[in-house]
Write a structure and sequence with these properties.
heterodimer, A: 476 residues, alpha+beta, Arc Repressor Mutant, subunit A, elongated, B: alpha/beta, Amidase signature (AS) enzymes, 40% helix, globular
């Protein structure tokens, strides 16, 4: 029997701001525990929230990137519950009036482009981080009050692959617009999946299950694939799906039960009385929207038009924002987009991976890369020689100087090559005879001999041309 | 009094030391203080200038004071020493005030008698068998007893004005947003208003000017210029249109209160004011107190959720974090607080929110329309602050559903609902105990409120009224 999965995704994404959503505490990953908090985020009695304008700006950018309709009257609500990681005993969020509604995102699927609708994006604040030890729980309040947006999709996805594509597209865009680091491994982007499975063609949805704490994009797909298989097996064994909250255990690649459905928790939402409704000016919103950084999709189109790159190459280049930026900088100095792109995506990426470096923090500069590609394009070094120069290039040496230092530079001076060709021809009368007899193979042999005599430095293209020319002279 | 102390620079230290000593001497009788603050360090570091330079002040214990115990009258915060000053305390320091103590208050400012502080009840300086009123009872009692010229209080429903009336002092609840709430342990955020308590209208003007002003740390803080209230003071009542709230008068049971009040109204007319009796919809007036409790308790139940024994609050043991929170809150809040939190959470609960909390907010909007409409026509609204003198500790209280309780006793919530400035000024006596008159004006029109208060003060001659504590 065929089954159809219906998948919706909720993403919590930390905004890249200098300080908290409602406080002046620094918003920085990796600080010593509790060194980056303040009276407000510790919920000291009497403290009040102070809305972070930068947080609102980044959230507006996110809404704009995903085509949501903005609500210019910003309102916040309280979500009340007691939990040890929630300092105030309530979270400030936007339950009743989210900042943005009704947007979408285009994803790539094997069947082509697909639109995934976004129901809402709202602003809220993060909770503290807990570290459960044997009989103790340690608290780090640095994360308490960090600005978050929650992005809620419509249940428009049907496979793990689509869900992965959705999360990746979201991640990429949020990262490109600078709204978030969007690092799932550091927890700055967190993903909860809602999934229900029903027999194909059924007029109702299956029972909804939630998978929490998925910590990487590939695990989104794995968790969903596992969950589809699990629920299918239950159906086929004649069982019923229970409403559960599960989590993905990446050690065993399975979802495991966290809790069965409990009574609906009542969060006693009510409007936050300490933050009066704020009317955003149309000019302010327009200014943010007019100055949006280029979105990945816009880049894709431009790279194809401007640089003529293949969509495959564009995809890989854009998947890494720093790589794309490096490519663009290099292209202000080079004409050879394909060459720059190929080197970046193959040998340079390989070298960076091997050495655990990132392109923007490595010693490689766009100037050096452009010069390096120039050396190849001008025939001053062969691609084989270029590979020998890679270490120098990647450790910050000027490739032109490095080629000289290593004695790699190709001899392209026709006069010098001509002298070597003449010597080689003199030494190989048989090859001349072969050529005269119509055996073109002789040319290849002679080129090899010239290259050998020049210790590989002669430009093979010039050598080839000269040999043809001089052979013709000798046999005429 | 403030002006004299400020201007006699050489005697300021002496005045503060005397205030400190007198307050300590009164403690066994009034029990008005939770924490004493030795003034010497402050005296050694007085700013060169300041509206309150060298003036001893008492501060309600819900205002956070850096390095000084701040309990808000609750056992749960009995060891809370804030690492920061509330904005109002910062402003007091900037203007050179010398804090000599943190005053007793009803637990978490929830109460009207000042009998629920974990340090025990505060006594009325006029009669030790009577309550001072709350929740700013400690601050009001010290000003009434004459040991400090001014004190800081907070008013969510009537918590400055009613005790001020019962202790014979001036109690000012300014416009919501005029004084920053940053650092004030909250009761109900949409109603909480800090204010000042003095013994003269002039002092109230200076005190309010000193502590008011825009503060970016409080998003509900108003972006308005603070005028020199004292320089604007003018008791000429010609051309003033004053409204007397008929609903409150009709609910009076004590004829002497009516007589004293009407006597003042006559004098205001003689001074040129036009005074009319106006009526608000009685149905709405009877809903004021219930709506107030629904909104205030709901906000309070959420505002004080940080007091769970995890980070704040003296922690009681328990097997799980949930147990710890439950035990801490059960053991360290008094019964009244637990009841209010329960009612508040009930009002917010999904099933009840529409018919309790949101309905109360609708009532609030209707009430605001009534009062705002009246203030469009009139410069100020007058009423007896309360229907009677301060009750005895053993007073069983009025019938809770009577007009006397709901309207005559509950009308002060009106100004918390619409944010209007409102103050109580001594108007006379009954059985040797003081009575107050309440004066309210349009939001941010403190000047008109002070002008009417000044006229009342001149009529009664009760400027500087002080209780002699026996």
């Amino acid at each position: 029997m065929e089954y159809k999965a219906t998948i919706g995704i909720e993403i919590h994404c930390e905004l890249k701001t200098k300080s908290g959503m409602f406080s002046g505490a620094p918003n920085e990953f990796g600080l010593e525990a509790n060194a980056g908090t303040c009276a407000i985020d510790l919920a000291m009695p009497g403290t009040l929230p102070e809305l972070n304008e930068e947080g609102v700006r980044k959230a507006i950018q996110a809404c704009t990137a995903f085509h949501l309709t903005l609500d210019p009257l910003v309102r916040f609500d309280r979500k009340n519950y007691f939990y040890s990681d929630l300092a105030k005993g309530f979270q400030i969020t936007q339950q009743f009036h989210p900042l943005g509604r009704d947007g979408y995102l285009m994803i790539d699927t094997p069947e082509g482009k697909k639109k995934v609708r976004i129901n809402r994006i709202h602003m809220e604040e993060d909770t503290a981080k807990q570290f459960h030890m044997n009989d103790k729980t340690l608290m780090d309040f640095n994360r308490s009050g960090v600005p978050l947006i929650e992005i809620v999709s419509e249940p428009d996805m049907t496979t793990g692959q689509e869900a992965e594509a959705y999360v990746e597209a979201l991640r990429q865009t949020l990262y490109y617009i600078g709204a978030s680091d969007a690092k799932m491994e550091e927890g700055s982007m967190r993903c909860d999946v809602n999934i229900s499975l029903a027999p194909a063609g059924a007029d109702h949805l299956g029972t909804k299950n939630e998978i929490k704490n998925i910590n990487s994009i590939s695990n989104v797909g794995k968790a969903i694939d596992f969950e589809i298989a699990r629920q299918k097996a239950i159906y086929e064994a004649g069982g019923t799906i229970e409403q559960e909250t599960r989590r993905f255990d990446d050690k065993i690649n399975e979802t495991v039960l966290m809790r069965k459905k409990e009574g609906i928790v009542d969060y006693k939402y009510f409007p936050e009385p300490n933050i009066p409704p704020i009317r955003l000016s149309a000019e302010w919103i327009k200014d943010i929207q007019d100055n949006m950084p280029e979105l990945p999709d816009e880049k894709r189109v431009r790279y194809a038009e401007e640089y003529g790159l293949s969509s495959h190459d564009i995809g890989i280049l854009i998947a890494n924002k720093e790589m794309a930026e490096f490519f663009e900088k290099t292209m202000t100095l080079s004409e050879n987009a394909k060459g720059v792109c190929n080197w970046l995506l193959s040998d340079i990426s390989g070298w960076l991976n091997k050495n655990g470096q990132a392109v923007d923090s490595s010693a490689l500069t766009p100037e050096h890369l452009a010069a390096f590609i120039g050396l190849i394009d001008e025939g001053r070094i062969s691609s084989k020689q270029a590979k020998e120069l890679l270490d120098d290039l990647m450790t910050g040496k000027d490739p032109v100087q490095a080629a000289k230092d290593r004695g790699l530079e190709q001899v392209s001076d026709a006069g010098a090559i001509e002298a070597i060709v003449a010597q080689v021809l003199d030494a190989n009368p048989q090859a001349i005879a072969d050529f005269a007899a119509g055996k073109n193979k002789a040319v290849g042999f002679l080129v090899g001999q010239v290259m050998k005599a020049s210790a590989g430095k002669a430009n093979p293209a010039i050598v080839n041309g000269l040999i043809q020319e001089m052979l013709k002279k000798r046999i005429s | 009094m403030i002006k004299e102390i400020r201007e006699n620079r050489e005697t300021a230290a002496e005045v503060c030391r005397k205030a400190y000593a007198d307050t300590q001497a009164l403690q066994p009788k009034l029990n008005a203080v939770i924490t004493f603050i030795d003034p010497e360090e402050q005296l050694a570091n007085l700013p060169a200038e300041g509206l309150l330079r060298g003036v001893p002040v008492a501060v309600k214990d819900n205002c956070c004071t850096k390095g000084i115990l701040t309990t808000a009258g609750s056992a749960i915060l009995r060891d809370f020493v804030p690492p920061y000053d509330s904005t109002i305390v910062e402003n007091l320091k900037k203007e050179g005030a010398v804090m000599i103590c943190k005053t007793s208050m009803d637990e978490l400012a929830m109460g009207g008698a000042n009998t629920t502080a974990f340090t025990g009840p505060v006594h009325n300086p006029w009669d030790e068998n009577r309550i001072p009123g709350g929740s700013s009872g400690g601050s009001v009692a010290l000003v009434a007893a004459g040991v400090v010229p001014m004190a800081i209080g907070s008013d969510t429903g009537d918590s400055i004005r009613k005790p001020a009336a019962w202790c014979g002092v001036i109690g000012v609840k300014p416009t919501y947003g005029l004084i920053s709430r940053y650092g004030c342990v909250p009761y109900a955020s949409s109603l909480d208003t800090l204010g000042v308590i003095t013994r003269s209208v002039e002092d109230a003007c200076i005190a309010l000017q000193a502590v008011a002003g825009r503060d970016s740390r409080d998003m509900t803080s108003a972006d308005v210029e603070i005028p020199d209230y004292l320089a604007s003071l003018n008791s000429d009542m010609h051309g003033k249109k004053l409204a007397v709230l008929g609903n409150v008068m009709d609910g009076l049971l004590n004829d002497n209160v009516r007589k004293v009040f009407n006597g003042i109204v006559e004098k205001l007319k003689e001074r040129g004011a036009q005074v009319d009796v106006v009526y608000f919809d009685q149905k709405i007036m009877r809903a004021v107190l219930p709506a107030y409790y629904a909104i205030a308790n709901a906000e309070a139940s959420s505002n004080n959720a940080d007091l769970d024994g995890m980070r704040f609050g003296v922690r009681e043991p328990g097997e799980t974090t949930e147990d710890i929170m439950m035990n801490t809150r059960t053991k360290n809040f008094n019964k009244m607080i637990r009841r209010r939190f329960t009612i508040g959470a009930f009002a917010l609960d999904g099933e009840n929110q529409e018919k309790i909390f949101r309905k109360a907010k609708k009532v609030r909007r209707l009430i605001c329309e009534e009062i705002n409409g009246c203030l469009e026509e009139y410069d100020a609204i007058l009423a007896p602050t309360d229907g009677d003198i301060a009750p005895r500790f053993d007073d069983p209280g009025a019938d809770p559903l009577s007009d006397y309780n709901l309207v005559t006793g509950g009308h002060l919530d009106l100004e918390n609902f619409n944010g209007s400035p409102s103050m109580s000024v001594p108007m006379g006596f009954d059985q040797g105990c003081p009575l107050g008159i309440s004066i309210s004006a349009k939001p941010f029109d403190e000047i008109t409120m002070f002008n009417v208060a000044k006229a009342v003060e001149e009529i009664t001659g009760l400027k500087g009224l002080t209780a002699e504590v026996k």
